[in-house]
Amino acid sequence: MPVDKRISQQFDVIVVGAGLVGMSCALALRQSGLAVGLVEARQQSMDPPTTDDRDWDSRIYAISPTNAEWLAAMGVWSRMVQNRVCPISQMRIFGDSPEGRLRFDANEACIENLGYIIENRQLEYALSSAIKDAGVHLVMGQQSCAVEFHDRHTVLEFIDGSQCEASLLIAADGANSWLRGQAGIGTISHDYHQLGVVANFKIEKPHHGIAYQWFGDLGILAWLPLPGNRMSMVWSAEESFARELLELSPESLSEKVARQGGMELGALHCITPAKAFPLRQQTAGALVRPLLALVGDAAHTVHPLAGQGVNLGFEDARVLSETLAARRAMQSIGDWMLLRCYERARKRDVLEMKCVTRGLNALFEHSGDWTRRLRNLGLDLTDRQARLKKYLIHQAIR
Predict the structure, then answer these.
(1) How confident is the model at residue 357 (pLDDT cuts 50, 70, 90)?
(2) Which of 151, 291, 310, 375 has the smallest count of CB within 10 Å of its CB?
(3) Structural class in CATH, domain 7-48+56-397
(4) pLDDT band (50, 70, 90) for residue 110
(5) Which of residues 251 and 388 earns the better pLDDT score?
(6) The pLDDT value given to residue 2
């Protein structure tokens, strides 16, 4: 007996993928007046995140001031528990010799802070509650199995035989995007053969809102300030060493991380299990096709050493929603020329971030004496240039 493939829902836009970037994109488009459907294969909980002071999420994000303002303008920021958010006052970067040091200070740049450290589940809940209140139609627990691209509309089919129709599809379904693959868009990838090891710690000394980063023979170690006497670690290292870190007891890991960071925050006590994720740089061959746009990890992934992955995704969502809002009175929102405006607007920022992260990682991978002297001298000279540092800060936080 044939399956009844009826159109069950019609939208202006369907966003596929309900991660942070997908939800922010759906919310921005809905607030611009579009009818938006948000599709996610997983069932997601809408329960408020814990406020238990003993329970901290190991997935932490550094959110730029510009993106924080955008989230606040959409009514997201106020939905988070504010005492679980930590502003960054300074960034201190260390090379692999005593003279290789660089400090970025919010006060010196005449800005309030350099960004905010936020738990994933706090931001996820704030976005999910905002999209629900805004009237985004949620299609949860539905696995997409096919997509059709027509002249002026698309049809998304699910495994139960139901379908949704829209004038535009947005792929926000991650680095292994199903929708990107269905559209025939390839990717260019670079595997760092590294893992990012993450864990949270209680600290002996106050961090004063300072984020730290060390470049050395054992990889790139970052400490991000959390509220109170806590910090979150990201250690990007070669796979073999990263796996050794994962096998350490909490006590041994705490001691190793503290010593690698020069005991800057005193003794550490691990409060979340160490986890790891593979590090790859990946870029889609195109950000748009007629009736389709890519955002977030579906469009690009970068090394976490600059802490800009989710920020690039939020900027995708913001620029795409602003582009459609400004031009849709003149063009269909799925029009390829309109979507190309979004692609052109994003390509420069994404290319710059790719070059910076890959270049820095490559520079500190080489262990020759001249390379070591050059990179540490570069940090020291930059630290002496107040105007240059102020410029770099304003470039980083936009």
Answers:
(1) low
(2) 151
(3) alpha beta
(4) confident
(5) 251
(6) 34
